[in-house]
Amino acid sequence: MKSSVTGKLFLGFAALSLADAGAATESIGVLSVAAPPGPTAELADLTGQLRRAMAERNADVVDAANLRAAMTGSVPGASLGDLQRAYDVTAQGALARGDDDGALVTLTAILAELDRLPPGDEASELWVKATASLARVESDLGHDAASSDALARLVRRDPDVQLNPREYGPTFLGRIGAAKAALKAVPKVTLTVTSRAPGARVFVAGRGVGAVPAAVSLPAGTYTVVGVLGKVRTAPRSVSLAKDDVTLALDFTVPESLRPDAGPGLALTDAASTTGVFAAGAYLGLDKVVTARLLAEEGFRSLSGSLYDVRRGSFEREGKVRLMDGSFPPGGADALAGFLITGVRGSDLVEVPVAARLPTVAKAPPKPDLSAKPPAPPKPTGVAISQGPAQRETSALGWAAFGTGIATVGLATVAIWQGVESNSDYNAARSSGSQALVSSGDSARTAAIVTGVGAVVTGAATVVMGVIAGEIGPIRF
User: Fold this and answer.
1) Which of 14-18, 205-209, 334-338 has the lowest mean pLDDT?
2) At what angle do helices 121-140 and 144-157 cross, to 10 degrees?
3) Kindly report the CA angle at 420 between 414 and 423, in degrees rounded to 5?
4) pLDDT given at position 464
5) Side by side, which strands form the sheet with 288-297?
6) CATH topology of domain 26-62+252-360
7) Which one of 15, 71, 361, 466 has the lowest number of neighbouring Cβ atoms within 10 Å?
8) For the chain, which residues make up each domain, given as ranges?
9) What is the DSSP letter of 99?
10) Residue 331, SS3 per DSSP
11) Which pLDDT value is given to residue 381?
């Protein structure tokens, strides 16, 4: 069991390292944009060609599948049906065989996947059953603190939870009653959720609490709020409840503009509006957005591509390519992709509108007054003034070194922990003569060695990349 847990921890720290190393990169979304009802099939196809051409030049371009997932709130992984079968067959089967360890692993994985799915009544019902089963398994394994923690999460999410007495038994139901009583002692705060979208349903911590305007009394704490209107859902909002009542307004403007099956793209009343583009880019978690629009002017049609920096809220550049019978001319998609990525117009196929050539920086400084006398030079003071080194941006390699440094700390912590566990098991085995404790100590020692080696590897990588980049994340030397 320990080796399994250590393996999960190792993977978690590896994922943390990759996430931190990837923090220096930027996500670029290519979206088709048109007035409602949204992009046509022709525009969606041209956008796909432009996206593929850009992806060949820049690995940070987000593919269509991940854009659709971001728009719909779904993520790659198990579906709700898969998780339900895993609970009914795998978890319940393990419990029936008396395999508490196997049930614990399965239930933990099911709950982790449920947290990644969009909120809904069926998902909430499965979460309650899986959490209750997890609390019971933790209790059977003697993990009292973990069991109590699971029960606290259960009643906080669903204070009125009711479980089948024949399935859980009076002792376990008594513990749930105690958890409910403890929760009632926590001060309550009223959360009111409103929206201009009538009929929108509200989910708080994954549990449906009714349609807007919805008011619910909750124990003090932090909760995630999501609004759902048909297939449209708002981005998760985190709300902290302390002493005073809180009112939260959900805005469906951006979600209603998303068209995951058309490009993916956006339906904006003013297709050339930058406000809608920036709002959608922020909602989807993109650093930059490239919009693709169809233009009809002077007897011909063009595909216009515009680049926006969502983080800075600035328009970067625009280029367009004339279409031939509704298609890119040979090399047209590649030429437009190259211009949008580099800013260099490397082909006559790309036209740059006059307005797009104008700088978007601050106004030019006023002309100097040549009639005025120049100021007298300052008197020397004998003190040299240095402006210091110019500031520079942290490089991708520096952030990668920062990520591997975090992974090194995590892996070293796990190695130390496993070494302590190993020594503890060996000492207990010497006293009791238990072979099971010897095997457990061997597993912990192996885990300590593996994670220790991982810490050495990531530590060496941190040093090498830090020396080359001259920095480790925000730390420069």
Assistant:
1) 14-18
2) 160
3) 140
4) 59
5) 258-259, 265-267, 28-34, 288-297, 300-309, 314-322, 350-351
6) Rossmann fold (3.40.50)
7) 361
8) 26-62+252-360, 80-184, 188-250, 396-476
9) -
10) coil
11) 38
